[in-house]
Amino acid sequence: METEEKRCIETRIGKYAIDDTAIISFPQGMLGIAEKTKYIILDMVEQSPFRLLQSIEDKEFALLVTNPYNFMEKYPVVVDKNARKLLQLKKGEPFDVLVTVTIPQNEPEKLSLNLTGPIIVNTREQLALQVPQYERESERSFFPFEGVTILSTQDSTVSADNAIQDRA
Amino acid sequence: MLILTRKPGEMLYVGDDITFTVLGIQGRQVKLGIEVPEYLSVYREEIYNKIAEQNKKSLMTTDVNLLLAGELWKLKKKDA
Fold it and tell me: How much is the pTM?
């Protein structure tokens, strides 16, 4: 009989028991952070599109990421032949897209989706690669919360629930 | 830094399986042909730096901002 092996890891948001099948390999790491190659994706808040790409080797090492198609209908991503090969993608095989998210200190409404370096994931093999985009429209960042008003975020002890008020 | 002078059409080897070929020079632009093993990636410097910087910033998100990001999403959905 097969038994499911779970391993316990420390993450930025607490302890998690994970299946080995949940581990995503980045054989090349990410740009500028090549040393970390094994990650899992964690949900931080229920129903939030923002997720944590957490290194399984280093508890403090986690990037904020999201699926860009939660925010944008159109975001064409070019994955060239070499990248497809590294990702072991078959011809025409679909892939998942994640982008990193940046939140400036005390200005969460200026949260941006970084469209230049999407992370392409082959979910069948759990293989991922950051694939730079050279199209002009992808060199921009996308700001999904422009125009949303947020109050008193200077106070770092404030809870998220009452830090935000609807514009209306 | 190793500095070498090459003419258009001339090549450089880095080890056995990496080559740079000067394909041509037009005004202030140099056209390079680069061959590397497929496990290596070649990036334009400005794109590399930009993505590396964004990766680092994404790592430094504070806990408060992580929470807020989730809340903003709820607000936006309510608006829509």
Answer: 0.82
